[in-house]
Amino acid sequence: MTAMHAPEAMDAETRQQAHALLEFCREMGLTDFYRGKNDPPFTLDAPAPQAAPAAMAQASQPILATPALLAPTAPTPPAQEAADEMPRKATQIYPPNVALSDAPALALAERPAALKAIREEMGDCKRCALCKERNQIVFGDGDPGAELMFVGEGPGADEDEQGLPFVGRAGQLLNNMITAMGLSREQVYIANIVKCRPPENRVPEFDEATTCTPFLFRQIDVVRPRMLVALGATAATYLLAGKSSLASLRGSIHDCRGSKLIVTYHPAYLLRDPRQKPEAWKDLQLAMKFLGLKAPAKPKA
Ligand code: SF4
């Protein structure tokens, strides 16, 4: 479990990392948790439009047409929502060993019990402030031996009510994405950066995410997916140590705890800006190619 540092106990390196994180949060518009009492409220009235993603590293490969399940349906997101996936400055918020894992690989038969043990160790977790307004902890869901694992940001209202990740509208879209990849939801594992719903679905704060992610890392170590999919900027930040912007992370295969990892948009963002669905489909095809998956054939009319 990663120990949290009180500000007065921070060493210079930790302080520098925290400073970089705060700078990153400022760029994303996340200022309320450290804004001074007398500072003016931060607004996103005029966000910079998101640049088109850079040419993908494997752009020369044939890209399948976007499946109907992921086809764009309605454009033009509100300004606040367009800022959700804004590129951000390169930062380093974690020790570099986040990408590594020295946990022994478990046999498939041992994994359900290992996940259960992690859940039991969490108990009625009150390790961070997100415990205060949650209804229940949303631990994770899916096949403990899955080759593909999705990681989102945190539970929303539906997830908080049902105790399962991705069960609302965003969850339905994620199900569609999984189906388009030729898999079923039961064949993958799904979890989040934080396991309790942030109030009003705000982005988890740094101390909340870093308090909770050790449990996620242990889940990853147990499941040992061949491929992780980071859904959105928050998942990418904490799984890849905040190395770079979402736009620059997309289109490449990264390393995380012994697994490969790709980055794509969060389904909730895709619901708000369906124009990005073809881009998300390109991202998923990277994972499919790595895993040797083929999109299911279209049903004949
Ligand atoms: S978000 Fe994670 S660390 Fe915080 S209370 Fe919930 S389970 Fe515990």
What can you tell me about this protein's structure?
The protein has 301 residues and is an alpha/beta fold. It has one domain: Uracil-DNA Glycosylase, subunit E, CATH 3.40.470.10. Helices cover 34% and strands 8% of the residues. It has ten helices and six strands, in the order H-H-H-E-E-H-H-E-H-E-H-H-E-E-H-H. The protein has helices at 12-28, 79-82, 111-122, 157-162, 169-180, 206-223, 233-239, 246-249, 267-272, 277-291; strands at residues 141-142, 148-152, 189-192, 227-231, 254-256, 259-264. Strand 5 (254-256) and strand 6 (259-264) form a beta hairpin. It is globular. The structure holds iron/sulfur cluster.
Features of the shown structure:
6-stranded mixed beta sheet, 8% strand, binds iron/sulfur cluster, alpha/beta, Uracil-DNA Glycosylase, subunit E, 10 helices, 301 residues, disordered N terminus
What is the overall number of helices? 10
- Derived structural class: alpha/beta
As for the CATH topology, it is Uracil-DNA Glycosylase, subunit E
Ranges with pLDDT <50 over ≥5 residues?
Answer: 1-8, 17-63, 74-92
End-to-end separation: 54 Å
What is the gist of this entry?
This protein has about 300 residues and is α/β, with parallel strands linked by helices.
Give the topology, please:
Layout: H1 12-28, H2 79-82, H3 111-122, E1 141-142, E2 148-152, H4 157-162, H5 169-180, E3 189-192, H6 206-223, E4 227-231, H7 233-239, H8 246-249, E5 254-256, E6 259-264, H9 267-272, H10 277-291
Helix pairs in contact: 3-6
Bound molecules: iron/sulfur cluster (SF4).
Iron/sulfur cluster binds next to helix 6.
